[in-house]
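Record format v2
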Amino acid sequence: MSAGVSDRSNRFLRALRREPVDQTPIWLMRQAGRYLPEYRAVRARAGSFMDLCQNPELACEVTVQPVRRYALDAAILFSDILTVPDAMGLGLHFVDGEGPRFERPIRDQHAIRQLRVPDPAVALRYVVDTVGRVRRELGGLCPLIGFSGSPWTLATYMVEGQGGHDFRHVKGLLFNDPEILDTLLATLTQAVTDYLNAQAEAGAQALMIFDTWGGVLSARDFLRFSRDPMARIIEGLSRRREIPVIVFTKGGGAWLPALADTGAEALGVDWTVSLREARAQVGGRVALQGNLDPQALYAPPARLRAEAEAVLRDFGGGAGHVFNLGHGMLPDIAPEQVTTLVEAVQTASRGLA
Amino acid sequence: MSAGVSDRSNRFLRALRREPVDQTPIWLMRQAGRYLPEYRAVRARAGSFMDLCQNPELACEVTVQPVRRYALDAAILFSDILTVPDAMGLGLHFVDGEGPRFERPIRDQHAIRQLRVPDPAVALRYVVDTVGRVRRELGGLCPLIGFSGSPWTLATYMVEGQGGHDFRHVKGLLFNDPEILDTLLATLTQAVTDYLNAQAEAGAQALMIFDTWGGVLSARDFLRFSRDPMARIIEGLSRRREIPVIVFTKGGGAWLPALADTGAEALGVDWTVSLREARAQVGGRVALQGNLDPQALYAPPARLRAEAEAVLRDFGGGAGHVFNLGHGMLPDIAPEQVTTLVEAVQTASRGLA
């Protein structure tokens, strides 16, 4: 049977294309991270988070760590969603416990018009080098996912100077001068397209666009300011047929048909989404990736297994599901919990396949 | 024609029952608040936020201020969503810029089993007194809305000790000991039912349940831990036929059919929801309340009017819409902006009626 041809080297890519697989592939957002002692050891050697991102040898090492330790079906480049605006000169840095900041946020028309699309071969060379190095290190073990933040998400951080729950400056731009926001988004759309093309050229086998802040927009504004730029990026990918794309709008569960219109092969969904309902809406057009609540990893093993099985049952078996969390791994999860989760997904999904 | 019988005294209540009205009624969440100079003057006299809530004379005054200044179609009791756990002895207070806190959060089985349902005539007497006083002060000008937080939302604050974006303790309870969470929610369901019945008895003409944190749950957990307790409250209201109920789950836009199953007359929706799509899903069963992005009030007047008109067009005219924001008024909005908004809604909706 055709499912027999899938294994760890291609299960994830087949599922993104809604082809049959022997068991549901699994990887975890932020799987390379602080919950792993081997990550903390490398991070301590590297210096800051950005020092680690910009060191291809060490970034490669932490990318590969989780797929060595666990039977995960994909590796994801160790990097940050905000490398593009950093390459534009905004000065990305991280404040402990408070997330990313830009030293030089950008708010006025003049500054927005001055922004230039960075050449990834120069300004983001460290990412391109890391991708190549990871591919050599992985051999055929499992595929590598490249990624970027969405234009709207990048714009949000660039205008606010940080993430958060207010969005006053970027919403102010949206309501007072939507045309200049369009200009900023057009620049970012070109920059992200070039960046993802460079990652694909260097060896990334799937691409993911993280639309972390799309969910703070109204349904109508979301289409113009977040969905449409993502669709233009996908249209601009030079190896469009070969490399599947995943779009993940956090908080976008009510907009799945609009997100499927981007042309992406798969949609990431957070844990507020019913996979059954999502599949009924868009399962004929895209694969679905998700969506266990990351806090379920605090549960005792039996309960964690039951929660993982509930996610699989909610999707309902058959082609087109990539198991993941609904958001990134939390830093204080016990590493053995991930072993429990991976085994639960693999065992239970063989029963459903 | 029947629409001719509606005016400021009953337009809001008619719209909640999906009866024809001459123009779309409007009120604004947190319409009594810091953006109004007359509110700031009273607040300065009262002391802390809780001192103001607990002083029926001053709480009445700030409840009535916005309906004196603007042609709004409803007043909402000036109070907080967390008065019930405060009455249970948890010690509610407010930290400037950081929102509500409980002095004595509650996390263990023993403490949860010790909780008692407060008698609103005693422990929440100040709310009951305020409701009666506001009704006398309003005369027949416009209806008064009473409210509470939902059991899940109250439980979240009670277990965490504060709001936030982590929810580690309450999710820990959910994944480790869901039965004790059910126990806590059952106590809160009875307490909120008694509290809303006391507000109705004192004169509240509509009731709203604010489910501020329902949107952090998975689709499945939402039904058990947030939706079902709200449905039990509505079932337990003693003047069920006379007093319409509005349920508002922030971030619950993907769950509207499940929310309509609570038995509420109306659902509040945040600005991520398309009113057109929401109406197609549940418009035959409930009215819809919302959903302008509160940050649209930062826009220049012409743009603000256009945004308000877009919300009205999105709903599409006819019965069953109450105009509101998708979240509370921000504290630094210029008061004249609210005049612009109210006039825009009233003028444009007469054209659509």
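Chain B is about 50% helix and 10% strand.
The beta strands of chain B are 75-76, 92-95, 99-102, 144-149, 206-211, 245-249, 266-268, 287-292, 321-325.
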